[in-house]
Amino acid sequence: MHPDPGHAGVDGAAVAHGPGPGEAPGFVVAPDHAALPGHFPGAPVVPGVVLVDHVAIAARAAFGLGALVAVPRVKFAAPVLPGQAVRIAWAPRGALRVGFTCFVEDRLVAAGELAFAP
Questions:
Q1: What is the predicted pLDDT for the residue at 23?
Q2: Measured distance CA(1)–CA(26) in Å, rounded
Q3: How many domains does the chain have?
Q4: With pLDDT > 70 as the criterion, what percentage of the chain qualifies?
Q5: Residue 33 is part of a domain; what is its CATH number?
Q6: Quick check: helix, strand or coil at residue 55?
Q7: Host domain of residue 27
């Protein structure tokens, strides 16, 4: 994954969105991410909004889309821990919608659909 300092998530951190040779698109949420303290103290879990934000930024970069305008569907299947590599599989659903599935290793962690402005 290649971090792109030109694309930042809600926390302002660089997001890895583009695959390198032989890689699937994805990202890692750092253990010092601003959203982790309090979610949950002593056993941090990456908040769903942080996962969706990273996926949206990756989709915008991958498909040349505008701003995220809606999240018609999302389901979180398993927790993501700080420092875990999240791999994204895409399922384009038209000009301005993208389906996604996220995995940590081979474990499904989230799936859904995002809608974007042109």
A1: 52
A2: 6
A3: 1
A4: 80
A5: 3.10.129.10
A6: helix
A7: 2-116
